[in-house]
Write a structure and sequence with these properties.
alpha/beta, Porphobilin_deaminase_N, 13 strands, 34% helix, chlorophyll biosynthesis, globular, porphyrin biosynthesis
Length: 328
C-alpha cells in the first residue's frame, strides 16, 4: 500500500507540474500554428523546455474573435486581437504572448516588451478564385471579399469595375467556405497565413508587391513578455531574427508617424536589396481607392537609419495628404 500510494502521489505531481513557459495565443487555426511554431523553436533552443509539460499553450478569446458581424473599423480597429492577451500577460496568467505583428498597435502596454520577431514569412497577398486566374480576369461587377481597407483601396484603385464585400471576416477556413458557397467570386488572403496552415493549394495566383503593397508587419510573428521578466526575455532573445525585427521596426515607425485612423488604408514594406541596403515602400489611400499616395526610401539596413526612414516617409505622406485625409 505504501508503495502504491507513493506512486500515486508521484503521478499526481507529474500531472500538476507547473509549466516553465505558458504561451498566450488566440484560438484560430492560424494563431495556434504560430504558437506551436514558437513552442517548437523554444524546445529546440532550450533543453529544459523540451521536456513534456514544460510549455503550455493557453488560448485566449479576444474582442476581435468575439465580434464577427461588424467591420473591424466600426468596433475600434487597433488592439482588437491583442487586448485580452496583453491583460493575461500583465496579470501573470501567461508568460509570453504570441501575436501576428500586423495586429499589434504601435504602442505597447506599460510593463511589457516585444523583444522577439521570428523569421518573416512571405509578405505577399494571395488571390483566390474558382472562376478567374487573376484579378484582371474577373468580369466587371465581380464581388471580391476582404475585411481589409488596405486591400480594398488598392484593389479599387486598379480595378474600378470590381465590387468589394468589405465585412468579409472570419478565419481562413471560414473565408474559403464563403468563397466556395458563391458569396463572393474571389478573395485576397495573406500568403504567410496560408503557408503556415499548409493551405497553399488554395492559391490561384500571388500578387506582386507593386500590385498590392502589404500591411505593415505582414507575415511577421512577434512575441511579448513582461518587462521585468528577465528569464522570458532571455528565452525570447535566443529566437529573435534581427533582419525581421529591423524591417518591422521601420514599418511600424512609418505607421506610428501617420497615426492613421482605423478607417485609413495604410501599407508599408521594408526589405533589403542585393547590396544589403534597406528599401522601404509606403502608401496611404482613400477607402474608395480614388486617391493613392506612395513614397519610397533607401538607406543602410541598421536600426536608427531604418526608424528614421519610416518616420520620414510617414511625414512626407502626411504633408501630401493634407488635413482631413486621416479622419474617421
Amino acid at each position: 500500500m505504501v508503495i502504491r500510494a507513493s506512486i500515486a502521489v508521484e503521478q499526481e505531481t507529474q500531472k500538476t507540474k507547473v509549466a516553465l513557459v505558458r504561451i498566450g495565443t488566440r484560438g484560430s487555426p492560424l494563431a495556434l500554428a504560430q504558437a506551436y511554431e514558437t513552442r517548437d523553436k523554444l524546445m529546440a533552443a532550450h533543453s529544459e523546455l523540451a521536456e513534456e509539460g514544460a510549455i503550455q499553450i493557453v488560448v485566449i478569446k479576444t474582442t476581435g474573435d468575439k465580434i464577427l458581424t461588424q467591420p473591424l473599423a466600426d468596433i475600434g480597429g487597433k488592439g482588437l486581437f491583442t487586448k485580452e492577451i496583453d491583460e493575461a500577460l500583465l496579470n501573470g496568467d501567461i508568460d509570453i504572448a504570441v501575436h501576428s505583428m500586423k495586429d499589434v498597435p504601435t504602442y505597447l502596454p506599460d510593463k511589457t516588451i516585444l523583444p522577439c520577431n521570428l523569421p518573416r514569412e512571405d509578405v505577399r497577398d494571395a488571390f483566390i478564385s474558382l472562376t478567374a486566374a487573376s484579378l484582371s480576369e474577373l468580369p466587371a461587377g465581380s464581388i471580391v471579399g476582404t475585411a481589409s481597407l488596405r486591400r480594398k483601396s488598392q484593389l479599387l484603385h486598379r480595378y474600378k469595375s470590381l465590387n468589394v464585400l468589405e465585412n468579409f471576416r472570419g478565419n481562413v477556413q471560414t473565408r474559403l467556405r464563403k468563397l466556395n458557397e458563391g458569396v463572393v467570386q474571389a478573395t485576397l488572403l495573406a500568403l504567410a497565413g496560408l503557408k503556415r496552415l499548409n493551405m497553399t493549394e488554395n492559391v490561384t495566383s500571388i500578387l506582386s508587391i507593386d500590385e498590392m503593397l502589404p500591411a505593415v508587419a505582414q507575415g511577421a510573428i512577434g512575441i511579448a513578455c513582461r518587462s521585468n521578466d528577465d528569464k522570458m526575455a532571455n528565452y525570447l532573445a535566443s529566437l529573435n531574427h534581427e533582419v525581421t525585427r529591423l524591417a518591422v521596426a521601420c514599418e511600424r515607425a512609418f505607421l506610428e508617424t501617420l497615426d492613421g485612423s482605423c478607417r485609413t488604408p495604410i501599407a508599408g514594406y521594408a526589405c533589403h536589396d542585393e547590396d544589403g541596403n534597406c528599401i522601404f515602400k509606403g502608401l496611404v489611400a482613400s477607402p474608395d481607392g480614388t486617391k493613392v499616395l506612395e513614397t519610397s526610401r533607401k538607406g543602410p539596413y541598421a536600426f536608427e537609419d531604418m526608424i528614421k526612414m519610416g518616420k520620414d516617409a510617414g511625414k512626407e505622406l502626411l504633408s501630401r495628404a493634407g488635413p482631413g485625409f486621416f479622419d474617421c
